[in-house]
Predict the 3D structure of the following.
Amino acid sequence: MWIDGLQYCNWSRGIFEQMRAGGVDAVHVTIAYHEMFRETVLQIERWNRYFEDHSDLICHAKTAADIGEAKAAGRTAIVFGAQNPSPMEDDIGLIEILHTLGLRFMQLTYNNQSLLATGCYEAEDPGLTRMGREVIAEMNRVGMVVDMSHSADRSTIDAAEHSVRPIAITHANPHVWHAARRNKAPEVIDAVVSGGGMMGFSLYPHHLAGGSDCTLDSFCGMVADMVETHGLAHFGIGSDLCQDQPDSVVEWMRVGRWTKRIDYGEGSAAAPGFPPQPDWFRSNADFPRLAEGLRAVGFDATGVAALMGGNWLDFFDKNFGPAT
């Protein structure tokens, strides 16, 4: 079972075909960045058309069992997530509605302060807000995973401590390997995995040591170091693949509706668009190369299977349903 913990591609039949060619059994896809509730519903409508038009390649998954059925049918399962709490607006009751519609992950922040917690680009991080604690409790109840990929350190540690169910960092890397602002400090990773949480390693060049020139050996060596420190069960792939997106999209991700100015984020002012992917991971068809790289740094078949998707599947199975 091969699973990618996060993608936001410019979706097309060609990309869905690459998923099948690469043996990708499930992908957590972003359906909302700055979209409010009604706009998110429109994105779900859009995905319903994809499921109808490309039913031979993809299907919607709300449970781990759905992913198993999709694999058996030779299709890639699509799991919905949001990279901001914008879809719930300021209404905690919308969390259950969104879960009913299929949303299984929601970040408490993107890069900025939200009503719930602090994003990684803020100068100060006071941690979870009062509303943030209430929202986590509701997400725990219905079976929506708390995602802290773009959140600041204290907020992430607070979320891990407050949540009664494991949380996730779906797409980031260790800060000690590459000091990007979005990558995670050791104490943050400790807080997430010690509670049974998951971390997906990112292939987005701004998160990689060496950027677009990062080698497969360096990336897989980092994975091996993290497994040695924290154990095998807590890690997977969360590629953050944004294939075929125009540069205007990354500007929209960073800017949304909160400013009139361009926010260059982790890129430089001279190159605000998407950086080139490493030559060993440019599309879903390259997933087998990740497995080869993991084998090359010493992982056996069990370890490769866990990191390539088995750990995510187990996490989905335990956390996508209502609290018991």
